[in-house]
Structures are given as C-alpha cells and as structure tokens.
Amino acid sequence: MPATDADLAPDQFEDLVDAVTGGPVEFDGLVVQYEDDGYVFEVPDLHREHLSVEELERVAAANAEWVSNWHFWNVVVGGEGTARRAFLRWLEAADEHSVRGRYDAMADGGIHHEWGELLVTVELGEVGYRRYELRHVDDADAGRGTLTAHTEPRNLRDLSKYDDSGRYRPLKTAPSLVDGWVLSDLTSGELKEALGFVYPATVENWHREQEGTLDVTHWRETAERQTGIYGVVEELPREAVEWVTEAACVDSQCLKRREWQYDEDDHLETPGGDGPFPCREPCSLVVAAARKWTKLEEEDEHTYEFDLTPSEKEQLEAIVDAVADGRTEGIREADVYEGANRYRARYLRAKRFDDDGNLCGVPTEE
Amino acid sequence: MQALVIVAHGSHLNPASSTPTYAHADTIRESGAFDEVREAFWKEEPSFRDALRTVESEEVFVVPLFISEGYFTEEVIPRELRLDEWDPDLWESDGTSASQATLYAEDVDKTIHYCGPVGTHDAMSDVIVKRAESVTEDPDVGEGFGLSVVGHGTERNENSAKAIEYHADRIRDMGRFDEVKALYMDEEPEVDDVTDYFESEDVVVVPLFVADGYHTQEDIPEDMGLTDDYRTGWDTPAAVDGHRIWYAGAVGTEDFMADVILERAAEAGADIRDALEKVREATGGVPASGD
Ligand code: SF4
C-alpha cells in the first residue's frame, strides 16, 4: 500500500482523542478507550493498554488505516441510519470485509459497482478519504484520458437530459444514458448528489428496501388517488395494466425493478426486472400514458376487411416490432429485406393507402 | 439541518420546462442558505411522492414554483407529498395571500413548512417590472409605455386570474407605467386583442408563467400577431396594428425568481442568515418592495 494512503493527519488523531473523551470508540474492528491508567488501543491481532497520549499517537500512526477508516465514516460521512451512509458502506462491502482488505482493494484499482447504467468506483484517497468515480458501464474498460472529464455533479444533470441522438429523456431510468464521459475525484457528498441527478431517489428507495420499509403503492391505489385529467385511469381494465407494464416497465425500457403489482394480492405476470433499485409505484409517465390507453380502450372493436399479401401482413407486423423495439434508426437505407425499411414502407403506402391515408381504402369507423 | 425543496410542474415533452427550476435551485445552493436544496416535479423525477425522502434534514421548506393558488398547490402537491393533515384553510388565504402551513409528513418523519406559491408573492411584481426592463433594455422603462401581465385565465382554477390581477394592480399602483392591464389566454380580456386595450404606442407584454414552452413561445406570440409562425421567430419590438409590442419570455426564467423563493422560505421561518443578500448580488436583485 502506498505510504500516503496509510498516513494519518494530525487532526484525524485529535478527532479520535476527542471522541474517546466522550466514551469508548468501537468501529469496524478498532477499539479505543480510556481506562483509569491510560488509553487502550485494539485492532485485530493487536492489543495495547496503559498508553499515554503520545504512545497512543504512535500506535495510531502505526495502524493508521484503522483510525483513518473510523475518521472517514464517523467524522466525514456521519449520517448514521441514512440512505447515503448505507449506500456508501455497501459500495465497499464494509460490513463483509475487514478494513485492511477494503483498503487493499480500494488502493488497487478500486471497488466497482453497477447502478443502472452507471459504474461507480470507490478508490482510496489521501489519509483514508475515499474518492469516487462515475462513468457509463459501457466505458468500463476505457482509459480515463479517453473520456470527457467533468468535475461537477451538476454536469451530469445536463448530460443525462438527452439521449445519444439528442432526444429528451423524460424517464430518468430509461436505459439511454449517454456514454463517453467521466466524473472522478468525487467526495462522498458529490457522489450522492450526482446519483440524485441521474437516478433520483433510487438510493433512498433501495435503502428502504434493504431495511424492509419500502412503501410500495400498487396500481389500484395509485389509480384511485388520481384526480383531474388523470382520474380516468382508474377505469383501465386489469389486462390492460399488464400491457402497460410490458410497454413501459420491462428492463429494456426502464432500469427500475418494478415492485408494484395490480394490487397487493393480485400480481402482474410481466417480469419486474433485475435492477438494483426498486420502483415503488407507477411513475408519472406511466400514469400519463395510461390515461391515453384508458381512452383508447373505451372504443369498441370493429371487423375490418383488408386484402393483403402474406408478405404485406408480415411487413405490417415487422414495422410495429421495429418501432416498439426502437430499431427503425438502425435499419440500413438500402436494406429492402427489412419490412420496416423506409423504401419498403413507402412502397406499401403507395400501393395500399388511398388519398386519405386509409389502409386498402377501408374507412375508419367511429 | 434544514432543507429547501422546490416543487415545479416539469414536462414529459419539453426539456426546457425544468430549466428555470434548476437554475434558481443552483443559485440558492451556492448561497449556502440551506444544508440541502432539492428540486422535485409533477412530471419529472424525483416525483413529489419521492421528494421528501431525498433530503436528510428533519425540517423541510417546500416552495411551489407555481403561479397561483389552486388545483396544484392546494390539492396535488400536498396529496403527493403525503401531508395528511393538509387543508387549504390552513393557508388562510384570500386566493393570493397564502404564506405557509406547518405540517408533518409521516412517511419520512419530517416537519414540513408548506409555503404559498412564488407567483403570488409580492416580490413577483418587481420581477415582472424587471422583465420589462430587460426586454426593453431600459432600466427606467415606464413613461410612455403600457404593460400587460398575461396569464392562463380561469380554466379549472379561478385563482389563476386573481394572481394576474393582483400583480397588475400592484404595478399600476406604482404609477410607473402609463397603463397596466391583465390579459388572458382563454378568457376576456384576451391577449389576442392586446392592441385594443392600450393607447400607448409601446406595450411590454410579460407572461406570468414559470417556464417557457408551448404557451409562451408558440401560442401567445402567434395569438398577438407578432408572427404567423412561431418557428420563424418575431421582432422585439414587433409592429402590430400601429403599436410596438415588446414581448418578454416567461417571468419564471428571470434570475430574480431565486430571491422570491428564498423570501417564501424565510417568511416560513427558514434561517437563511445572509443568504438573501448573496442571492440578490448574484441575481442583480433589489430588495422586494412589498414588505
Ligand atoms: S412505473 Fe414502470 S416505467 Fe415508471 S419508473 Fe416504474 S418501472 Fe419504470
């Protein structure tokens, strides 16, 4: 381990002595306390007692990582019981690995976690301070220098607003985060702020889930709560809610893991997803879309007759598939073997639509 | 610890909708007035439902970046924030005088100071005047000028018109402009006929909206006849029926709004120390005339 990582700053030691004045310090394997005749200092494999403050300082310096670890978690991070602290602890698996193991891993390339499309890395800074890095998971192997460097968490707010093709991303957890950037040297506070901009409230709801206090609001209750123009969504049929989740909530569309169901005892069949952070109730995008679907579902079905060749029927299916899977942009200009190719679609329209845009000239019945 | 949560409408379609909210939040963040500053949206994330759990402070000041009291501020926001004891009567408001109510949010175990919307704060009158100054590039604009404050109208919310009138009255009382008139998009007197309502040749039109979007950048300019097609833009001033119309963007985009947000929180009891001064420096603000 590089010497600087193991160092202890004078104020860190002072903070420790101050803390011990208030009572014994016991944290992550470190025990420091004051007994009648001096200080006691204990880490795994080492027990010293009857220490003067000068001796304590020497022992602390010789076992600096235990003390700097205490300092980081209790003076820098604090926030006992908060989502922020729990998340930071989780990032370095602090409850599973010893201080020494974590320091070695953080000093040697860092510890990595995926959070949606973000790759979060925690590294060891000076005197036990942690430094965090964020980048797109697709850039996991990229050299830091090849990525566009940003310094402010706020930059991520702007970066995450648009997708690769410059389109607005109304759903923050849609898997369309742009890559090619890096935010490094973040403090724990800045990391939390950046995550709050890219994936708002995910850390907080993840924490609640860990604690067993996640408050899931299912579809029925959410729909019944709506007023104004959204009041109608209550009338969306049960089976349509299944289609809504298939349309919007699956992992290919949203990285939150859907925990809400139709009702507490009436679960939906659509897979909820595998992401680390939960979705605790239908989001505003889903409610707004459901309002449209509620209105569409009020229409009666009609029997229409169209004359299509088998290939034309398949082509219509291919077009719906391509739009639904967001593949239209990737279909090559001259790839006339693809039903959703633009020339193929134009040909079909020229052949089968009348001047009013009716398929096979069949008018739409109201 | 105390937090400020600015709640705004946001949009699924218009990326510019949240821009003023973030800009004002950034200004306040930099002032250091609060331990935490967070934005939350009806249509974006974090949602109102999740907003309060994103701050650690036990005392939270919630300021709605909305123009008027009504459906959103009295019904939607308190419901979504789970302020169970909320009742609009707690504001003791006549439609434009809400200040704050102190409530408890059970899901997060926090004290919530739920403030009145920024739009009805007295300082908004100054923001509107400031808007007139910026669009005419004249810090003394007033003499020889008419000023129109434009709003939605009553559509689902009678207080919306009240807020517009309130500020029009206050600005009229300043005696600075030759004429001041409240106009609406969906009721009489309509903004379409703006030139009928003014004798002054020069008329500044300020839309009392939080963000620029469809209404302020497409509807109103076309309705007033500034342009036939909003996409081609318009002149400032634009000649319409022998008048010169100086059309300002949404009032909510004015830097000054950060002051108003802070004033709301301060009146609700937030300890903002010298932050108001700092924010006024940053936004080029003047002390609110209203209080
Ligand atoms: S409701 Fe569906 S689309 Fe919306 S955030 Fe939850 S999982 Fe994602």
Textual characterization of the structure:
The complex is a heterodimer of chains A (366) and B (291). Chain A has 4 domains: 10-77, no CATH class; 83-210, 2-Layer Sandwich (Gyrase A, domain 2), CATH 3.30.1360.190; 215-297, 2-Layer Sandwich (Alpha-Beta Plaits), CATH 3.30.70; 302-366, no CATH class. Chain A contains 14 helices and 11 strands. In chain A, helix 2 (10-21) packs across helix 4 (64-77), helix 5 (83-91) packs across helix 9 (202-211) and helix 11 (238-248) packs across helix 12 (284-297). In chain A, strands 5-6-7-9-8 form a 5-stranded mixed sheet. A 4-stranded antiparallel sheet of chain A has the order 1-2-3-4. A two-stranded parallel sheet of chain A has the order 10-11. Chain A is an alpha+beta fold. Chain B is an alpha/beta fold. Chain B folds into 2 domains: 2-120 and 254-283, Rossmann fold; 124-253, Rossmann fold. Helices cover 30% and strands 20% of the residues of chain B. Chain B contains 8 helices and 10 strands. In chain B, helix 1 links the parallel strand 1 and strand 2. Chain B is globular, with a radius of gyration of 19 Å. The two termini of chain B are 27 Å apart. Classes of the chains: A alpha+beta (366), B alpha/beta (291). Chain A binds chain B through residues 79, 82-84, 154, 157, 161-162, 168, 170-173, 196, 200-201, 204-205, 208, 215, 217, 225, 227-228, 280-281, 283-285, 288, and chain B through 11-15, 22, 26, 38, 42-47, 49-51, 53-54, 56, 71, 75-76, 79, 107, 156. The complex binds iron/sulfur cluster. Iron/sulfur cluster is lined by residues 171, 173, 248-249, 254, 256, 258, 279, 282-283, 285-286 of chain A. Iron/sulfur cluster binds next to helix 12 of chain A.
